[in-house]
Amino acid sequence: MDKGTLIEFQTDGGTRLGVIQRPDGKKNWIASDAQGRNYSLHPRQISFAVPGRTYLAEDIPEFEQAARAYQDPDALELAWELLSPDHRLTNPQELAQLIFNQTDPPICYAAHRLLSQDRIFFKQKGDYYEPRSPQQVQDIRHQLEKAAQKQEEVNTFYSKIQQALQGETVTWSGKERHLLEQLEQFVILEGQESRPVAELLAHLDRPVTPAGAHELLVDLGWWHPHENLALRRSSLPTTFPPAVLEAVAMRVEDPPTDLDAPWRKDLTALKVYTIDDISTKEIDDGLSWELLPDGRERLWIHIADPGRWLTPGDILDQEARRRSTSVYLPTGVIPMFPEVLATGPMSLQQGQTCCALSFGVILEPSGAIAEFQITASWVRPTYRLTYEDVDELLQLQIERERELLHLSQWAERRLHWRLAQGAIQIQMPEADIKVTDDQVEVRLQQPSPARLMVAEMMILAGEVTARYAQNAGLAMPFRSQPQPELPSEEELLQLPGGPVRTCAIRRCLTKSEVSVTPGRHASLGLDAYVQATSPIRRYGDLLAHWQLKAHLRGEAPVFAAAELQSILQSVTAATQEASLVERQTNRYWSLEYLRRHGQGVWTALVLRWLREDMDLVLVLLEELGLELGMRVQRPVKLGEHLQVQVTHVDPYRDVIHLREVTP
User: Fold this and answer.
1) Cβ atoms 466, 476 nearer than 8 A
2) Which stretches within 324-401 are classed as H helix?
3) CA 18 to CA 46: how far, in whole Å?
């Protein structure tokens, strides 16, 4: 090329015009742009050489202005209409002559720009351009329209994002909701972002990380500041399908036939106590005490009969099986059955005649079972009491509530009998965490006579159920626990009594197992045991009810052993997932509570070493019933009390650091 040749070239900054000054080595050329900057250009960087004359660098602005006047896309479409029937190739000079009837340098360059920027009508073939077929043009236009529409949607979405970030109310379209759901998945799956998610975060100058996405979702108001990620990461359903809710409405309006009605025993004359926490709405058990004519005493454990309102295999049963359990979280309950049923006709409601499955038991003075019966029944709960109410009544020893006193005394005997059978008693303070209107309350839940009474009566009903099933040869969801290898008496005596010693025993326990085959439950000290006292909130208990009631009616079992075992496998998996979500959610709110009380000083009891070589211990915050790990800076002993303070806590990342403080 000659000095003074005007060229178009490509750099990292885009397309520029320049004037050739001289060669630069064997291949490159030095060119100057309109601002006088010099570039060393490889031939591949030169996209067009303007024919006809030579130029100076200062001529470039005037040349660009002259060429710009001819860059009319409509003219290019006209040229395509003329050239496409014969499929005739063209180049910038020919196109300039065809469109503008002249080939002056600015016009030739304008023709080059039209051809090189075109994405619709022509495609380059060497130094020439080939007209596309009408079908190709139509397809490209359709693609471009779709791309333009998509970009418009993106721009609208980004505009709504800004409005939402400024606190304005925004209505999201279906596509926009889908993108926000992708943002959710990025957080939930911890790092598997999609391209739109990455582009959105980058556009907003947010970190392209799960934490950045989480913060954006909260800022948008799409997520609550304390969104339950454990629940979102699970497969637990949080709402009921419309078909299930429709079935519930029909069931309440038109109850199914009560198959057990001919055999239900009328126990409405008994005084029935339902005892639970004040927040409990699913009332599934009640207790009675009866003095028999021969002077013996019969204990009654009445269990709600939700099977009265559904049949095996119907839509309500299928939904309950899918859920397998009610999930209890600090923020509320995710019920196994829709609330209108669970807290309504299924529950043992005070003052109303309710269907129940009642377990009548006469005990030996030692606490062992002497006689028992199981019957479908009608009961009318007399009192709806909390544990605190019952503890107060027991302390006052009110004669007109002597039934409670007898129940409590028999519960003590049962506990002593089970301990004599090898039961392992674990009594540790526990945290009861409730969140109401974003206020976190942590209450210490201590063992009490009322809680002992209810627990022992439920365990008694479980033993009765297992015995009945064994005598009848019924397949049941038997719950067993292998015998643990406990520390020796000598080893335990070396540990401080109370929580430290209990913690050492607890570490040795293994998980309980559920099977259609009965087996010993080591912790309970029972040779066989079936959970059957919470059928409104545990599906396994509902299975036990169906098996029992079918046998009581003289019918074949609802489930054969193989089918029941198969059902139990899926139920066990679902309940384990629910338990994990409950633990993780309680952990989150525990840390959040401590975050909000960051300046507080807590009394911590050293329970055990987690990693002695790393100075890590497990401590119990005694005021709250919370167990946390911490690193100590000095030698400590098990059972020692420390005064600790939170130095760093991040509930979202499940991180907490404690340090000992001196009084």
Assistant:
1) yes
2) 339-342, 387-396
3) 10
pLDDT of residue 121: 96
Distances 65 to 71, 104, 110 between C-alpha atoms, Å: 11, 14, 10
Q: CB-side exposure of 404: number of CA atoms within 13 Å?
A: 25
H or E stretch including 465?
A: helix 449-472
Question: Model confidence at 649, in pLDDT bands (50, 70, 90)?
Answer: very high
CA–CA–CA angle 41, 44, 47 (5° rounding): 90
Q: What is the mean pLDDT of the chain?
A: 94
pLDDT digits (tens, 9 = 90+) for 124-180: 998 899 999 999 999 999 999 999 998 898 899 999 999 999 999 999 999 999 999
Looking at 166-209, list the stretches that DSSP marks H as alpha helix, in order from N- to C-terminal side: 174-188, 195-203
Q: Given its phi and psi angles, is residue 350 left (phi above 0), alpha (psi -120 to 50 degrees) or beta?
A: beta
Position 207, amino acid: P
499 contact partners, CB below 8 Å, separation of at least 6: 428, 429, 605, 607, 620
Can you name the residues that pair with 643 across neighbouring β-strands? 603
Beta partners for residue 521, in sequence order: 481, 526
Sequence letter at residue 436 = T
Instruction: Give per-residue pLDDT as tens, 260-296.
Output: 999 999 999 999 999 999 888 999 999 999 999 999 9
**C-alpha distance from residue 183 to each of 104, 163, 208, 216, 576 (Å):** 55, 18, 11, 9, 28
Q: Are strands 478-480 and 128-131 parallel, antiparallel or unpaired?
A: unpaired
Please name which of 238, 336, 228 lies closest in space to residue 584, comparing C-alpha atoms: 228
Q: Say what the pLDDT of residue 445 is.
A: 86
Checking if the pLDDT of 195 tops 90, the result is no
In degrees rounded to 5, what are phi and psi of residue 402? -65, -25
pTM of the predicted model as reported, rounded to 2 decimal places: 0.81
The helix/strand/coil state of 362 is strand
CA distances in angstroms from 252 to 110, 249, 325, 345, 378, listed in the order given: 79, 5, 22, 8, 18
* Residues 164/169/171/175 CA torsion (nearest 10 deg): 10
Torsion of CA 345, 348, 354, 357, to 10 degrees: 110
The pLDDT of residue 190 is above 90: no
> Residue 576 has which token pair?
């384990």
* Separation between Cα atoms, residue 33 and residue 21, nearest integer Å: 10
Return d(Cα 262, Cα 306) in angstroms, integer. Answer: 17
Separation CA 11–CA 46 (nearest Å): 10
Q: What is the identity of the amino acid at 413?
A: R
Indicate the DSSP class of residue 28: E
First to last CA, the chain: 88
What would the two tokens of residue 196 be? 């739109």
Classify residue 129 by burial, with Cβ atoms within 10 Å: 0-12, 13-18, 19+. buried
Give residue 167's identity as a one-letter amino acid code.
Answer: G
Residue 359 and residue 331 in contact, taking contact as beta carbons nearer than 8 Å: no
What is the reported pLDDT for 429?
A: 86
Are residues 625 and 598 in contact, defined by beta-carbon separation less than 8 angstroms? no
Given a cut of 80, is residue 191 above it in pLDDT? no
Q: Are strands 616-621 and 327-329 parallel, antiparallel or unpaired?
A: unpaired
Q: Which residues of 528-565 are buried (b: 16+ CB within 10 A; e: fewer)?
A: bbbbbbbbbbbbbbbbbbbbbbbbbeeeebbbeeeebb
Instruction: Count the Cβ atoms, other than its own, within 10 Å of residue 319.
Output: 21
Tokens of 97: 């002559």
Determine the Cα–Cα distance for residues 379 and 524; give it in Å rounded to an integer.
Answer: 29
Tokens of 175: 């596509």
**371: nearest Cα among 505, 487, 494, 471:** 471
How far apart CA 543 and CA 561 sit, in angstroms, is: 12
- For the record, the structure tokens of 214 come out as 């989480």
Residue 284 and residue 536 in contact, taking contact as beta carbons nearer than 8 Å: yes
